[in-house]
Hints:
Strand 11 (214-219) and strand 12 form a beta hairpin. The radius of gyration is 18 Å and the shape is globular. Helix content is 37%, strand content 30%. The chain has one domain: Rossmann fold. It is α/β, with parallel strands linked by helices. Adenosine-5'-diphosphate is lined by residues 13-14, 18, 36, 38-44, 54.
Amino acid sequence: MSELIIRDLRATVENKEILKGVNLTVRGGEIHALMGPNGAGKTTLGSVLIGHPSYQVTGGQILLDGKDITYATPEERARAGLFLAFQNPISIPGVKISTFLRTAFKQLHPEDKTGVNEFFDNVKKHLKKVGLDESFLSRAVNDGFSGGERKRFEILQMIILRPKIVVLDEIDSGLDVDALKLVADEIREYYSQDVGFLIITHYQRILKNIEPEFVHVLIDGRIVKDGDKELSLKIEEEGYDWLRSVA
Length: 247
Ligand SMILES: Nc1ncnc2c1ncn2[C@@H]1O[C@H](COP(=O)(O)OP(=O)(O)O)[C@@H](O)[C@H]1O
Ligand SMILES: [Mg+2]
């Protein structure tokens, strides 16, 4: 069973302290929602988890299955089983999506013997499920994608690359109601394989489709409240102001 432990994590962006001691544990088979107002540091946490170079860790630890990945490269983190869909994924012009998926899969699962045909049959099955056309495979990674295409592609990557712990930052942004349902169905299907999820979101919207067991509220770089689904419903009705006094 996988386990991501975030322990007293502190981080700065351009010398400004954004994360001020975040503690959070996500295990395989659990869905956690991280909520919080704009500017709370949610995307910063996601970026620090993937090892984005613009963010400096100044204290604390990130452990994945007991391995300290606090200062690991993004590739090392991915190999350890962590997956992050970026709020604004970078484009890799010139690299076809089909090539990218096959190469990344082989790097992450060198022991897997799935042949090329079987691999792409599975890719095509899930392309359809997330509502993307087969011609998508010939396009370059994130090159000129619409917001919705990016989000669908993130979910496709998750399914194909088979990470153990998944962090999704604002996965619902840019998706209409129908697309959100497709994406939520895929997330639920993948979750059934004992995968741990950290769903970062400003709004309750996605949480209607994917019910979290655990809800955490981040304000000003600290988790100020932990709860369950009821907490996210209360936030939908009352906003975040009632939580600011404890921040
Ligand atoms: N690359 C960056 N450069 C400068 N400031 C940043 C950068 N990324 C985030 N910040 C600042 O960090 C704070 C938290 O931002 P962010 O993590 O994006 O919050 P959230 O995702 O909760 O809205 C904000 O004050 C934002 O201006
Ligand atoms: Mg954000």
